Structure formats: structure tokens, C-alpha cells
Known about the structure:
Bound molecules: FE2/S2 (inorganic) cluster
Distance between the termini: 19 Å
Strand content: 25-35%
Shape: globular
CATH topology of the largest domain: Rossmann fold
CATH architecture of the largest domain: 3-Layer(aba) Sandwich
Radius of gyration: 20 Å
Helix content: 10-25%
Number of domains: 3
Order of helices and strands: EEEEEHEEEHEHEHEHEEEHEEEEE
CATH class of the largest domain: Alpha Beta
Amino acid sequence: MSQIVPVCVTRIQQITPMIREFSFEAVDQKLLPFSSGSHVVVQVPLQDRIIRNAYSLLNDPYDQHHYQIAVRLQEQSRGGSKFMHEQVKVEDQLNISAPLNLFSLNSQAKHHVFIAGGIGITPFLSHMKYLLHAGGSFELHYACRHGLNNAYEDLLIQLFADRVSIYSERTQQRLNIQQLLEQQDLNSHVYICGPDRLISTVVTTADQLGWSAKRVHWEAFSSPIPGAPFDVHLSESQRRIHVPSDYSLLEALEKEGIQVPNLCRGGVCGQCSTRYSQGEVEHLDHYLTHQEQQHFLMPCVSRAQQGHCLHLEL
Ligand code: FES
């Protein structure tokens, strides 16, 4: 992580049974400005180590006196989201990174079409608040489960009214992606944040309808999920490193003092790309092409297939 910013937790709100919102304010320095779509990496101090998870900033970028994030309690968690939900209290101090934007608005777009699934709503909250100031044209399509992960549903309707369509058990509406994309003109850009299946459906549909890839933007931070333990062999330093089930490969390397460049720690930015020469990989990233995955992996999220030792060119 680049710059470490100490922040104080000033407010915690339970938004849905599985989503908590946290507000952070500066401790000893002014918070850095951010643009809509930015994220911060939060250092979650577990008893035996620090986990670093990326979360989108959801507040208005014009409101720079605090940062707000929302954390979904993950069923398959290494402990980060559970700690945020159960241990973090108001007035606690946490360390976070400076904001970084990997999901910015395209300045050429005349109209922005946002598609969110569940907790994927968070970057769009910031985008839409920004666009209200900037006067940009947008619409939001939000698929969620009523009473579970329908975060900010009432607020969205209150703030953005008919620019918002909700797809849930409550509304009995289903998102028709093909129809939605067919209605758009050539100056519209589409942005997706949510589960992998939603992203790949929109990306594939846009491709089939002849959309240029430059008009399709998505973000999917996935905190690394626990998996079977495995070993890696480092060919340059001739070392063997064990990756426990609740560590990502990146964390195991860092624990051994091996630094790999990283920004998102969630398989989307491409910074940690590492060449490997042997072993079967469970890739889990959203960055590499299928062809690139034959030679490279993303240690922030990728693991070895069961029973394989990976040979990394480190
Ligand atoms: S740190 Fe961004 S892809 Fe690994």
C-alpha cells in the first residue's frame, strides 16, 4: 500500500442486515480529495495479522471532510468483513490508503448507464451525487434482494427519483439487459459493479450488440476468498513459501518480506501480475485475458488448483 492515512471512525450505520456503513474522518491531516468511483484500501487489524480490503467511497466527492464506505458481511470471509461488522466501533482508529480511482466516469460519454448488483451500488452513489452537481445525464439500474442487500434503496429513490429502476422481490421487476442496451444511443457508456455473473452478462451482451469495449466499464473488487493451502516455489530466489488457506498468495509473499506491486488487492488493477512457469492456477481475477492466464497470475486473488505447487518467476 502506498500512503497510509490514519482515520477515525465517526459513524457506523447498519444499512441492511448484511451491510454496514462506516464514516471516517481525518486524525492528524486533512483527507485527500477524491473523484467519484474511487476506492480506499482499509487495513483490518485481525489478532494475528492485517488484512487489506478495498472498498469504494460512496459519499459525494464534493463533501471532502469525510470518507464513507459500506461493507458487506461475506459468508466466505477470511475475517475482514466479520471484523468490520463485529469489532469496529465509533472512535476507533484505522489505517487506510489514499483514494485511488480505477472506475472513473468517461469524460466523452453523453449519458451514463449504471448497472449495480447488491453492494455494487456503492461507487454509483458517489458517481450520481457528483453528476447531480456536474449536471451529467445518467440512469441507474439496481438489482438487489429486498431486506437483505437492497442498500440505500429509499435514499436512491428520494435523491434520484425516476432516474432509478430497482429490480427486486419488492418491485417484481426483472432487469432485461439486452433491452436496456438496445435502447441506448452511441454516446452512452455503461458501467457495471456487482457479482461476476452480472458483469459477464452485461459485457457479453454489449459485445453481441456491437458495443465498443471502450464504452463498457466495470469494477468487481473481490476480496480473496479462503481456499485450500498450497505451496509456491520462487524460481529466482530458490525459496519455497507456504500459503495457508486463509491467506492470499500476495499476503503470504508479503509475510515473507517479498513485495509485489499492488493497488486494488482484488484482481482488477493488473498491478500484481506475476509470471509463473508451472502448476495449475485457479485465477479468479478480472484483469488477464484467457491467453495471458496461461503465463501470468494475480497473486492478490489467484490460488493453486488443489494439489498443485506453483512455480513463480520471483
Ligand atoms: S493488486 Fe490489483 S490485480 Fe492484484
